[in-house]
Amino acid sequence: MSSEPHITPELVAAHGLKPDEYERILKLIGRVPSFTELGIFSAMWNEHCSYKSSRLHLRKLPTKGPHVIQGPGENAGVIDIGDGLACVFKMESHNHPSYIEPYQGAATGVGGILRDVFTMGARPVACLDLLRFGSPDHPLTRHLVSGVVAGVGGYGNSFGVPTVGGSTRFHKGYDGNILVNAMAVGIAKKDEIFYAKATGVGNPIVYLGSKTGRDGIHGATMASAAFDEDAQEKRPTVQVGDPFSEKLLLEACLELMKSGAVVAIQDMGAAGLTSSAVEMGAKGDLGIELDLDQVPCREEGMTAYEMMLSESQERMLMVLVPEKEKQAEAIFRKWGLDFAVIGKTTDNLRFVVKHHGEVKADLPIKELGDQAPLYDRLHIPPIKPPVILSCDVKPPVSNSEALLRLLGSANLASKRWVYEQYDHLILGNTVVAPGAGDAAVIRIGDGPKGLALTVDVNEVYCASDPYEGGKQAVAEAWRNLSAVGAEPLAVTDNLNFGNPEKPEVMGQFIAAIEGMAAACKALDFPIVSGNVSLYNESPTGSIPPTPSIGAVGVLADVTRTQSIAFKQAGDRILVIGSTVKGYLGSTAYLREICGREEGAPPPVDLAIEKRNGNFVRGLVHNRAVSASHDISEGGLAVALAEMVLASGIGAKIEFRPHDLPMHGFLFGEDQSRYVLTATPEKADAISAAALSKGICCLIIGTTGGDALTIAGEAAISLKELQSRFEQWLPDFMRSAHG
Amino acid sequence: MRAAVIIFPGSNREGDAARALAEANGAKPAMVWHADHELPAGTDLVVLPGGFSYGDYLRCGAIAGRSHIMDAVRAHAAKGGLVLGICNGFQILCESGLLPGVLMRNRDLKFVCRMQHLRVERNDSPFTSQYDKHQVIKVAIAHGEGNYEADAETLARLEGDGRVAFRYCDEAGTVGGAANPNGSVNDIAGIYSETRNVLGLMPHPENLIDPLVGGIDGRGLFKSLAAVA
């Protein structure tokens, strides 16, 4: 090990390891680590891989349920969706790389999450993406939107999986630290799931896929530190994606899995070869010995250190059944991919790395993971903000004009510019496409079963009250699935927060988790996979706490779903759920019309949430309604406008509340509400059924015409609604070119 | 009708094409791996599906257009056999010399995926007999390089010989303007070979075969082919 650099305090610090963490290493191995070993520790013990600040609190999240086959801890979560099928899904962030190099950062984020899903034996059937950009006024925002959207599309489109849903929003809190959270969903046979756990001593460890290069070295460490002004200089830590290779890798892996040759499989994601090899061994209570001379390399002269830390994309590690090695190799050669036996499993629980005949690392494999630092970070509970009701906020000059301003605001305007760059139609199973429903709905194969998919979080709610915000994000996802008639089954989360060493950030983190846990428990909605992204900081401070929720629901009969579009003139418009208070704290109205971003977010009563959602799901399932839409940001008025816009059919709203200001009724973001339409006869029956269950149900108007007319307000023509809703994003992006 | 779908590494709509063929034809097509040098005996129709053959890191379709299997496809076409190239398949047909012209990056330099109306230019081809002349159909588009271009002489010949198969239009059938999604010359969405046994088109009729998933306007093309033999 003489040729490697000498270990100094500076070198330790450069690896993101704190002095006490280095002491821990010394105690653990009883000697000074080699340079390669230091690299391995930095890869395993950074925040991204070790969850050292979050592990303690993540335990509060419910992860079990009757449908759960595999909870957190594997490459992705797995749930039982009936008929011998399983749904495999996970969401993961690629925030820091996407800020440094938007196209490749976003593209490799998609590639990484797809790999997590097909590593488990599932064929990917859908992607979703949750994007958060800085203020539209920030000089880098257009560049980032343009690159990230092209990158998400570039990878998914080429790989051949539809990107069926997502969420794109803007907030000044993300200036300098955007969020790119990608979710992938796959389908597998329930009894043909593959895991990372290695078994058997002396089994070959096989390297598959693309060659190893010098890209992405220390990517995970970079992702575990806060940005400073030199962020742009970190460009070499970003990997480059190759969706073509990944498509080949997918087909080769699935073919290989069918052949019965695979004992264990793990993709090389963050911290590359190090993390995947250690994980396979540690999970199986086995040692691993690697011979780096066998690793397929893209460039000459790569050191052990570089190979162990490279994050080159589209690579896999497998443990194979020894006698099937040749058969496996033939499959990989057919697909034109590299195949190399680079090591074996051992019985000594050591992680041994050899290169050019020298031992470059010899470490205890279990302790690399198990003995990673665990912190109970100092935390300050967030202060509860005051409630703001519509009676406390002066009404706008014109409710119609306020609605138009909301529709033309960055967060509520149409995201067509984004989703039209994603192939959302490939595979021919997209039943509810982007913009058409509260959740995406896809058919599984030739049906009749379907999946509903959504990603949600309102960072303004979370910033104001992380507990209620976390709770609301889960409830909103559950509501979106219910609105399309799906039975909500399980959740994947992506917890994006600032620097956990700041007590107020840690306080936000804990509160958000507790809020999420409360909602998951009450709604029987376990979390089966997830990702934590901390140190989302920029020179202006921590990002708003953003616990992204990705959720999956199942439809036994995918034809029993519903979109938000009105279907015909003359249908009655119903509002399910009560608008008692007209909550305006942290709402779109307060932000866009009053220029204020403050106040308690609208509270969610989880018992009411469940009751209302079950009622609406039943109506959609029984084909009692002709349109279904939840009421979320922007309130009832925005929900109605979106239904008009999706259909080209207008609406006349006659109802006026007598105990609530009109702007509270129209723009309040009171939770657990839905807008439905039905024929007049069915509407009366629905109203009676709701009454019998104690659910508030108002018939507020009728569909028809070519305008949205609200009682006492100037009618808004369809044309005007369209131009406000559709123009904001294209105009914003166009102005980039002067 | 015996159909064969060619799979190149990087093809990704081969399953969609196979599904549409099976639905219209009542029989599953043969799936042919690019490394094979021959088409299955008795093949009536060859389909080159959508995707990103060989990654398309060079000009789209450039490598696939020069692959061994394309010799067999050219021979098949020369004998009057039917060839359908969809999206990447259209790009491959242009690269292989089976169709004239080239597909450049979209006018807006962005990938575009959405529902798109087309005008069926003629219904006396083996691909369009089940449509009416000038019928407006709704299909999907999903491409980054669908901006068809050809030199003036080629274009004049295509137009003069009635070899434009489909043009981009709006719902009412008005061709061009904002309805052209990619800047394609003369709003061309698809063209025929001289003898009209080869069709290349950018849109995806294979994704419009199901009332639950967008509509059934794409069926006509596959039904037309099924009716040939």
Mean pLDDT of chain A: 94
- Taking strands numbered 1, 2, ... along the chain, how are they ordered across the largest sheet of chain A? 8-10-7-11-9-12-13
In round numbers, the mean pLDDT of chain B is 97
Largest sheet of chain A: 7 strands, mixed
Instruction: Sum up the overall morphology of chain B in one term.
Output: globular
User: How far is it from the N-terminal to the C-terminal residue of chain B, by CA?
Assistant: 5 Å
| Beta-strand share of residues of chain A | 15-25%
Q: Provide the structure class of chain A.
A: alpha+beta
Q: Number of helical runs of chain A? A: 25
Q: What is the subunit arrangement here?
A: heterodimer
The most extensive interface between chains reads:
A-B, 33 and 30 residues
Shape of chain A: globular
CATH class of chain B: Alpha Beta
Number of domains of chain B: 1
Question: What is the CATH T-level topology of chain B?
Answer: Rossmann fold
What summary fits the major beta sheet of chain B? 9 strands, mixed
The CATH architecture of chain B would be: 3-Layer(aba) Sandwich
The CATH superfamily of chain B bears the name Class I glutamine amidotransferase (GATase) domain
* Separate helix tally of chain B: 5
Order of helices and strands of chain B: EHEEHEHEEEEHEEEH
Layout: helices, strands, pairs:
The complex is a heterodimer of chains A (738) and B (229).
Chain A (H helix, E strand, L loop, with lengths): L8 H6 L4 H11 L5 H11 L1 H4 L4 H4 L9 E3 L6 E6 L2 E9 L1 H6 L1 H17 L4 E11 L7 H19 L3 E8 L8 E11 L14 E6 L9 H4 L20 H16 L3 E6 L4 H12 L3 E5 L12 H6 L5 E6 L4 H10 L3 E9 L3 E6 L2 E7 H6 L28 H9 L8 H4 L10 E3 L7 E4 L6 E7 L2 H6 L1 H18 L3 E10 L6 H20 L4 E7 L3 E2 L2 E2 L3 E10 L16 E5 L11 H5 L13 H16 L5 E4 L4 H13 L3 E3 L8 H6 L6 E5 L1 H13 L4 E7 L3 E4 L5 E2 H17 L4
Parallel strand pairs in A: 4-5, 9-12, 17-18, 24-27
Antiparallel strand pairs in A: 1-2, 2-3, 3-6, 4-6, 7-10, 7-11, 8-10, 9-11, 12-13, 14-15, 15-16, 16-21, 17-21, 19-20, 22-25, 22-26, 23-25, 24-26, 27-28
Helix pairs in contact in A: 7-8, 7-10, 8-10, 10-13, 18-19, 18-21
Chain B lengths: L2 E5 L6 H12 L4 E4 L11 E4 L19 H11 L3 E5 L1 H9 L5 E3 L7 E9 L15 E8 L3 E3 L2 H9 L3 E6 L18 E5 L5 E4 L17 H10 L1
Parallel strand pairs in B: 1-2, 1-3, 3-4, 4-11
Antiparallel strand pairs in B: 5-8, 6-7, 6-9, 9-10, 10-11
Helix pairs in contact in B: 1-5
